[in-house]
Write a structure and sequence with these properties.
The protein is an all-alpha fold. It has helices at 8-25, 32-39, 43-50, 58-68, 72-77, 80-87.
């Protein structure tokens, strides 16, 4: 990782922002409950991930990155909203 100053709490916040952005923009807006069903997680877990109240397990990061078509590193460390808006 290029940025060695990345902390777990910062990564949690970035991931939370990315999850909100992706869920609301990917294949049309889907609810937290629908995403939870797709990933076999509880809706409360998705809510906690999106509010940065819970850290994601490696498996959850893997499943989310796979579902949204991004890498795990992108999901955890990149501002996907900014990057994808800049591409357009």
């Amino acid at each position: 990782m290029k940025n060695m100053k990345m902390t777990e709490s910062k990564m949690c916040v970035i991931c939370a922002e990315n999850l909100q952005y992706l869920r609301k923009s990917h294949n049309g807006k889907i609810s937290q409950q629908a995403l939870a069903r797709i990933l076999n997680l509880s809706p409360k877990t998705i809510m906690n991930y999106e509010s940065a109240k819970s850290s994601l397990s490696a498996y959850a990061v893997y499943r989310l990155a796979d579902y949204y078509g991004c890498t795990m590193e992108e999901l955890l460390t990149k501002n996907l909203l900014k990057e994808r808006t800049d591409e357009v």
